[in-house]
């Protein structure tokens, strides 16, 4: 009981921090907006410029300023590139700090709620007039480039995701040890997950394994259990019915079924008991630590995960699987929306604006894409024959691919397929993407704008997520989802529904 109470308190602290970070960039700080000049001088690169860039980082953190990749970019573009690497789990809070101080870097990733909040306030450079000078940037798919922008404007460039990316993955060796088959339905999934929690699949004689886990992200959306939510009939934030979009906060009957499933899993130890304080990456870390039997795994990270897991358990094996069917045959998998954007500060020197555009355009070119993925030839890899390459030890040390993985990269699903890898691995990854595409769980409201959601949607979502978490942990009855739904509706949800549906109609 003490552990459960501490977990719940920690979840409340995390959600309070996130929901409190919704300050608006001050309009009173507006100054005349500088615009990148259309005609750059012939000696464009003659002056060395300092470029500040704020990026989101994940496990292992970012590069030091003297990293060989940064040094190469500094030399190529005559810049002093200074990247501030902000951990993903505090990125939203960092943006709130910048908002309060009005002290933004030259280029930075902005999460889509903040993008909607600030896009009309003169903070972001409109790059639409300059795209004809940067063919690789102009080649970004139009629907992705223009999502969330006001008509006729392009405020920044989206960070590419393979949308139906993450694949439900199961510990194959645990299945074999317990003489179990890959589950085809959610009922079968539950029984297998329960066996993973109760029958000591790791063989250490301790009750220290769980069937599955998940986390709540910075927008209070439930991640890594999409296959459960979809299979039990919930929409991905919204679903269409009779020509109208309905938010998942109002899908009460589906929530009751889902919460009965998750509460049972929590009470029986099938669900990770610490799910409420998980952060982005926590489910994968627990899978790699031999603690969880199912995970939503990025196929691009399969070699890394295998390396980590087999160092701990040499005989460990896992395999991708189709998402299990719900009672009515519904299925779904993760679906990542390309709504977060890299934006250029509108009030910096036009020379800096042009230099940044040159760098971004280079990253999408064949030469630049090869550089940000594979690194420096002779340092991070070497060519053996015309079509065979060898990865060098420095690649492991330098992690040469962080721009490609975390900051900005080409718009294709080959972004993490490396030329020194076995082509059979690449084919397996493509097959996983194709399998996921069949079960894509789309959000029909993605990219639609609601001023009320922009202003208070995350706070409302957080309060709803807190209610859901209490029910899962058995601290509130399942029927209390009805009052949580009514509260969401009364505190702004009704207006959000109206605005989203108006945008959908238009």
Helix content range: 40-55%
On the 0 to 100 scale, the average pLDDT is 90
Number of strands: 14
Q: Which range does the strand content fall in?
A: 5-15%
* SS content category: alpha+beta
Please tell me how large the radius of gyration is. Answer: 24 Å
How many H/I helical runs?
Answer: 19
Note the main attributes of this structure.
three-stranded antiparallel sheet, five-stranded mixed sheet, alpha+beta, 506 residues, globular
Describe the structure.
This protein has 506 residues and is an alpha+beta fold. 42% of the residues lie in helices and 12% in strands. The protein is built from 19 helices and 14 strands. The strands form five sheets. The protein has a five-stranded mixed sheet. The termini are far apart. The model is unreliable at 17-40 (pLDDT under 50).
